[in-house]
Amino acid sequence: MLVLAMITSFIDRLRGKPALKADNALNYTYLHLHQAQRNRDFLEVKIEGDEVLYQSIILESDPNERTLLIDELFPTGFVGLPGQKVHLAIRQKGGRKIKFESTILEQHRYDDAPIYVLAMPQDIEAGQRRSAYRLPIANSSSIDSHFVGPEGNAYHGLLRNVSSTGIAMDVLLDEMDNSGGPDNFQYNDILDELVFDFAGVNIQCEASVRSVEVDPNDQKHILIGAEFVDLPPVEQRVLERSIMRIQRDRIKLSGAFEADMALA
């Protein structure tokens, strides 16, 4: 089969290449795309310059070659060409939606229908319907957090946003562990003994890693997004009320500032 032959060619092209270094962004992207492939989730495909919304599915994903193989576009009739930019989205259960952009690298024929090799995206937007508002934390606020990583080392972070269900933290790995790196943290890793104070609320719980973003200028500087695992319901409600109060105060302050500017 042509698909099998293409997959074999991917492996052949790898021979003689040096081993790839750990890449958290690639790991995160491949995890979501492989899950969509396994579940046979439909792809929504938009070709730049064409108003039609097409559908397809992922036939194969190769993290080493950083490529995706997708099926014929439906409705049929349009043939994509190498070099064309494409915008893609994957709708999943529970309101989740994955968005990313790519480029057609190759076009082949299988069973007299076109199939496409796309560049695996550098990153993806894996969003979901949020039941909790995320409150941004200004850099000047310097809200400290502490936790124990999956390898047992202690870490210090600065909060960048907080909700009643999770947080995002800036973490400098070399502050506590000179041998650490971005690959210390993977999706679903547990952060033990997470502690931080917010608006008079002391939070102590575990959290599960949901995203890891690496500063391209400093591999020791990462942003970790994590979801609370065992936060007691009472503390969660208190945290949510504090976030809502601060958000209301910010809106009022913003409105007062705009009114002052209008009178100036």
Automatic annotation (TrEMBL):
Residues 128-244 form the PilZ domain. Residues 32-124 form the Type III secretion system flagellar brake protein YcgR PilZN domain. Pfam families: PilZ, PilZN. It comes from the Bacteria. GO terms for molecular function: cyclic-di-GMP binding. InterPro entries: PilZ_domain, Split_barrel_FMN-bd, T3SS_YcgR_PilZN. Gene3D superfamilies: Electron Transport, Fmn-binding Protein, Chain A, predicted glycosyltransferase like domains. This is PilZ domain-containing protein. It comes from Oceanicoccus sagamiensis. The lineage of its organism: Bacteria, Pseudomonadati, Pseudomonadota, Gammaproteobacteria, Cellvibrionales.
